[in-house]
Write a structure and sequence with these properties.
Uridine Diphospho-n-acetylenolpyruvylglucosamine Reductase, domain 2, Uridine Diphospho-n-acetylenolpyruvylglucosamine Reductase, domain 3, homodimer, 477 residues, alpha+beta, 21% strand, 14 helices, 4 domains
Chain lengths: 477, 477
C-alpha cells in the first residue's frame, strides 16, 4: 500500500500491484466486466479534467453484480476506487491517480423501464440525460431536470453531484427527482431501495447520502426518477434589466400568471452579454448600454398563446419595471440563438484559458448586493480584476469567471476565493451550487462549512467507508 | 439508569431521579425554558395517542440555546428525550414513558421571516402549518405542502415524519420543501444549515438525516421552507370511476392540459363513499353503484375558466373513460362538502373504535391489482373481513382501515399486516407512506425493510446517537 498526493491531499489507499498484475487480477473478477489499460485509455477523451484517467486502469462492469464483485475485491485489497460517469464534472471530482482503479458506469447504460402512468423511469447509472429524455418523449414525458451537458452527463453522475440546471427554480434539483436508488456500498454489499413512489416515511431515507455524495459513500448503479409531461408550446424572449431585482420582478410576475408556466429564467450581467456579442458578432442594438440580459421562456396552451402572452406581459411590465429593451423570438431558430448566448458560456476560454471559475448560490434578494460587493472585493485585490457573471437567476445560482488567464498563484487564488465566498453562508447561500466540491472547491468546503457540519460528514464517512476507499482526496472530510 | 418497556421494545435510557428532583434540576437549566409536571399535563390533550404524556414531565424551550442546554444535560445524565410537536402523529411516534423527558417545541413558535422574492419562509419548529399558510397568504404565497391536520401539525413534526398530504403528487413531500434546517444533535451541539436556496452541492447534505428521522437523530428547531404562489381560482368535481386505472387516466389528462393546474386528486373506493354517505345522509344519486368516487380540484386563470374547463373535460372524457357519474361543485360551499367527505376520514371510528389502519404507497399502475389482492388476502384470514380504502391516488398513497373494532389480537394483527404489506416493496412501494414508523409500524419496518437498509440505518443511529437517547423504542434500528 503506497500513499499518493493530489494538490497536497494525501490519498488514503492505493495498490502496490504492478499495472500488469492489477490488470490481470481485475480481468479475472467477473465475466460481465471490461478492463481497460493505459493503452486502451489513450485514445479516449478524459472529459473536463485532464487528470481523470491518471489511474491508468478503468473497469466497466455491465451489471450491478459485477460492480459489487469489483468493489468487494478492492475492499479486501485496500485499493481505492474512483467512480466515473460522463466526465462532465467541472471541479475535478473524477480525477484519479496511479494505484487507484477507475470504476466507469459506461456499460451500465440501459433504460430499464418507463412507466407512463406513474410518470417514472428506472435507469442504470450510465444512461445519459439526453438518452432518457428521448425515451421519455415517446410517452409525451420528459425529465424534470435539464442542463446544458445533457448529451454526455449521466444520470448516476447527476445523482452523485446533486445536479441543478435550468429547471431547479421550479422543480428542485436532482435530489428532488430521485425516487429510488441502488448502490454498491464500500463493503461491496448492494444497497437496493428502488422505490417508485414519492411518499415514503419508513425510517431514515438512507439513499439521500448518495445523492450529492460525490462518490464518497459508494457507487450509484440504478436510479428511479420522476418524469413530467412535456410542455412543447413555448415562447422565448430576451429583455434588458437594470439589475437582478428587476429580473426577479419579471420572474415573479410570470410565475404567478395563470395559464402559463415559466420554463427558464437565465440572466447574463452586462460584461458577459457585451463581450459575448462582440466576439460572436451578435446584434445587441435592442439592449440598452449597462443593462443585463434576461432570457425567459414560457409555455402555454399553444405556441401562439405563449408568444402573445410574452408580448403582452413585456408591454405591461415595460414602464413599471423600467425595462431596458426586449425582444421576443420570432422563430425556433431565433430562440435557439438566444439560448446559445447563455449555454455557450465557454466562449471566453480561448481568451482566458484556465480562468478561475465559481458556482455559488445566493438567496435571490441578496443578488444585487452580492454582485456589487464581489466587484469591489475583486478590485481591492487587483484594480484590474473583473468577472463574468451569469446564471440561473430564479434560484440564485450564479456562475462567476475571473477575467484573467489562469491558473492563479495559490495565494492570489485564495484571496479570490475569499472574495467570492465570504458572507454567502451567513446569507443563506452556498459556496458550491451545482458543481460539487471535488478537488477544486476543497478550500471552499474547508473554510466556509460549519465545524458541526464537517464533523458530522466525517462521522458518516467513517461509518460507511472506514478505509477511505471511495473517491479519496476529493471532499475533505 | 433503569430500563423501560413499551410494547416489548426495551428503551435504552431513563432516569432514576425522582420526578420532583428531575423537575427541580430541569427548572434550573436555562431561563428560557418552561418545565411542566404531571399535574400541569393533566389538563392538556395528549393528541392522537393516549400514551404521549407518559413521561409525566415536559420541557418547553423557547430558544435553540435552551433546547441545546437541555439536550446536553440529558446526554450527560443518560436521560432519554422524546421530541413532540403538534401531536397529530398516527403511529405512536411521540409516546413517552416514565423516566424520559418530553421535549416540546410549543414555545419555539415564531415565524422568523417570509421572503417574498425568494419565496421562502424561515420558521421555528413549533409553528403550525396553518399559521405559516396565513402568514404567507399576506404575500400572495402559500406552502407547497398541505394536509388535513394543518391547524395543529407543526412544521418541525412534518419535517421529522417527512409529511406528504394532498400536493405531493405535484410538489413532492416535506423533504422536497425543506431548504434549510437547524437541529440540536444528541450531543447537545447545535447543527445549523439554514440555507435559503434550492441549489446546494457542497458536500453531503446532512440535514436529510433529520427529515423523516422521526426524532431519532436529534431535535429539529428551525426550518427554511420553499413557498409557492397562491392559485386561488379553482373548481372542484366528484366523478365516478370504475377503477384506479380510470381515475389515473383522468388525472393524467388534467395534468397535461395547458393552462390548468391539477390541485388535488383524492379517491374513495365504493365501500368508503357509500358508508360515509349513508352515515351522513349525503346524496349519491349521481354516482353509479359499485363505482369509486374521485375528487378532483383544478386551478386556472379565473374561477369561471376553471369551472368551464372541468365541465368540458368531464364531458370529453365521459364516453372514452366510461365515467360512472360526475358533478362539478356550483359553489365554494358545495366544494367544501366534497372535501369533507374525504377529509372526515374518521367517520367510521365511532362504529369501529381502534380499528387497525394502514398507510401504504403503491406505484399507481399497481393500484387496482393491489386493492384486489388485498381484499382476497383479507378474506383468506377471515371471510367477514373488508377494508375502507381511500387516499391520495395521484401519488399512489392509500389509506386502509380494517372494518372491525380493534385492537386485534397480536397474531391476527400480524396476519393482517402481512396481507397489507406483502409485495409492496418489490413493486416499488412502501409499507409506510406518510405517517412514519413510530411504535405502531415497527413490525412493518422489521419485516419489510431490506437487511442492507436496516444495517445502514443502525450504523447511522449508532454514529449520531451512540447512547440511544433520542426517541428510543420507535423505529427499531
Amino acid at each position: 500500500m503506497a500513499s499518493n498526493e493530489v494538490d497536497g491531499m494525501t490519498l488514503a489507499q492505493s495498490t502496490t500491484l504492478t499495472p500488469l498484475e492489477l490488470h490481470r487480477r481485475l480481468s479475472e473478477l467477473h465475466p460481465e466486466m471490461t478492463v481497460l489499460s493505459v493503452q486502451d485509455l489513450q485514445g479516449r477523451h478524459p472529459g473536463e479534467h485532464s487528470g481523470n484517467f491518471g489511474a491508468g486502469v478503468m473497469v466497466q462492469p455491465a451489471t450491478v453484480e459485477a460492480a459489487a464483485a469489483l468493489v468487494g475485491w478492492c475492499a479486501e485489497n485496500n485499493i481505492a476506487i474512483v467512480p466515473q460517469g460522463g466526465l462532465t464534472g467541472l471541479v475535478g471530482g473524477n480525477v484519479s491517480v496511479a494505484g487507484e482503479v477507475i470504476l466507469s458506469t459506461s456499460r451500465l447504460n440501459r433504460i430499464l423501464s418507463i412507466e407512463p402512468e406513474g410518470m417514472t423511469a428506472t435507469v442504470e447509472a450510465g444512461v445519459t440525460l439526453e438518452a432518457l429524455q428521448q425515451a421519455a418523449a415517446e410517452h409525451g414525458l420528459t425529465t424534470s431536470i435539464d442542463l446544458g451537458s445533457r448529451g454526455t452527463a449521466t444520470i448516476g453522475g447527476m445523482v452523485s453531484t446533486n445536479a441543478g440546471g435550468i429547471l431547479a427554480f421550479r422543480n428542485g434539483v436532482m435530489r428532488h427527482q430521485v425516487l429510488g436508488l441502488e448502490t454498491v456500498l464500500p463493503s461491496g454489499e448492494i444497497f437496493s431501495d428502488l422505490t417508485r413512489v414519492v411518499k415514503v416515511s419508513a425510517g431514515p431515507d438512507l439513499k439521500q447520502l448518495f445523492i450529492g455524495g460525490e462518490g464518497a459513500f459508494g457507487l450509484v448503479t440504478k436510479v428511479v426518477l420522476k418524469l413530467e409531461p412535456q410542455r412543447p408550446y413555448r415562447a422565448t424572449a430576451m429583455l434588458g434589466a437594470a439589475d437582478a431585482r428587476t429580473a426577479l420582478s419579471v420572474i415573479r410576475h410570470l410565475r404567478t400568471l395563470p395559464g402559463v408556466t415559466l420554463e427558464a429564467a437565465e440572466m447574463m450581467w452586462p460584461r458577459y452579454i457585451r463581450d459575448h456579442a462582440h466576439l460572436k458578432g451578435l446584434d445587441l442594438s435592442w439592449l440598452e448600454e449597462n443593462a443585463s440580459a434576461l432570457l425567459v421562456e414560457i409555455s402555454a396552451e399553444s405556441v401562439d398563446a405563449a408568444a402573445a402572452t410574452l408580448e403582452d406581459q413585456l408591454a405591461e411590465l415595460w414602464e413599471p419595471l423600467d425595462l431596458k429593451g426586449g425582444i421576443v423570438a420570432k422563430s425556433l431558430d431565433q430562440a435557439r440563438r438566444f439560448w446559445d448566448i447563455r449555454e455557450d458560456s465557454g466562449f471566453y476560454y480561448a481568451e482566458i484559458p484556465e480562468a478561475a471559475a465559481f458556482d455559488v448560490s445566493v438567496p435571490p434578494t441578496h443578488l444585487d448586493a452580492y454582485v456589487a460587493q464581489l466587484e469591489s472585493r475583486l478590485k481591492a485585490i487587483d484594480h484590474a480584476y473583473a468577472a463574468y457573471v451569469y446564471g440561473h437567476i430564479a434560484d440564485g445560482n450564479l456562475h462567476l469567471t475571473l477575467i484573467k488567464r489562469g491558473p492563479l498563484p495559490q495565494d492570489e487564488l485564495r484571496a479570490v476565493e475569499d472574495a467570492v465566498y465570504t458572507g454567502i453562508r451567513e446569507a443563506g447561500g452556498s459556496f458550491s451550487a451545482e458543481h460539487g466540491v471535488g478537488l477544486e472547491k476543497r478550500y471552499g468546503y474547508e473554510t466556509f462549512t460549519s465545524p458541526a457540519k464537517r464533523a458530522l460528514a466525517r462521522m458518516l464517512k467513517q461509518a460507511l467507508d472506514p478505509k477511505g476507499l471511495f473517491n479519496p482526496g476529493k471532499v475533505p472530510f
